[in-house]
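Re: the request from the purification team.
They wanted to know what the chain is likely to look like in 3D before they choose a buffer screen. I agreed to run a prediction and write the result into the notebook, where they can find it.
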Amino acid sequence: MQTNTKIAITKEEIVPVAKEKRAAGVMLIMIHAWLDDDGTPVVSYEYSNGPEVLSYEVRGERSLPSIESVYDLAAQWPEREISELMDITFEGLDTSKRLFMPDNLLSGEGQILVTPLSELRKENVEQRADGKQ
């Protein structure tokens, strides 16, 4: 049975923890982010520890150091996804190209989550493949 242990850390501890885990051969499972009910951003770094998942959580920060240099694409993709969907940035991460959001979004602060589909269609769909509006 798999268990999950949550460990609170500060933004200054993110890179040292990642380096320690990488040196020990520990796999980065995923990086998740969400807003708590009160709007506080939470970023969780999940590492495999045998049958246990270690979740290192950083709360209340909107700018964090990237761990791409430590975990390469395993960190780059979730960091890019988070920065594209939420108002959270990762220092040192190249976000000059989008993963999946339209390039014409204003600021990448999660508008897709709050913009009605009807408005997105008006802004992004000029003409359907069959020629109809």
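For the purification team: The helical segments are 14-23, 68-71, 73-85, 111-114, 117-124.
Please add any questions underneath this entry.
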